[in-house]
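Researcher: Dear colleague, please comment on this protein.
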Amino acid sequence: MKKILIVEDDKKIAELERDYLEANNYLVDIALTGDDGLEMALQKDYSLIILDIMLPFTDGFKICQQISQKKDIPILLVSAKSENIDKIKGFGLGAADYIVKPFEPSELVARVNAHIKRYDRLVSNQIDKKEEIVIGKLRIEKNSRRVFLDNQEISLPNKEFDVLLFLAENPNIVFSKDKLFYSIWGLDSYGDHSTVAVHINRIREKIEADSSDPQYIETVWGAGYRFKV
């Protein structure tokens, strides 16, 4: 059975989420503080993490960032904030989805199902494909999820790596923002598609000699982005 971690300081909400997930055949752990949630996330193996942003002492954004830097796991951020800037920030820190309170527990379960299935497909596909991609001075190691430029390792959060890998595996094809958002964040993700541009810009800053004149990820005006080979 798949195991889920809920990090939520409201015990009643956490228990309600747990009950719905357990009714759908998931094993569920609950952490009522951010510190406990971070420790459990890093020490145990989970298929997905449901992480509230408004936590005492340490906010969910910081926890999301720390988990994403060390583990490749879908993280669903939960918040009463509905502003696009918060959604973009969450996606930029490695979150797979952003759910605004209040929400129906059935919606949460549907999103959990969708992201776990999609993650399992990605892992399965990576096993079947070539392990390493080399273009010029850029090297992408898929299984270890590491990126090197001129033999120097570059740190990419999970979603930045996913965007780069998706484009590199499909060279010379133009992808719209909508297509990239669907391919990386999934059908059941709801967010501002400008987050795609944010991720592209961050990747360019790390892999391009001149981000204003990119040699790898090219903007095709009015159409989208293309990885040039």
User: Anything to note?
Assistant: The radius of gyration is 18 Å. The chain is about 45% helix and 20% strand. Helices lie at 11-23, 34-43, 60-70, 84-92, 105-128, 158-169, 177-185, 194-207. The first helix runs from residue 11 to 23.
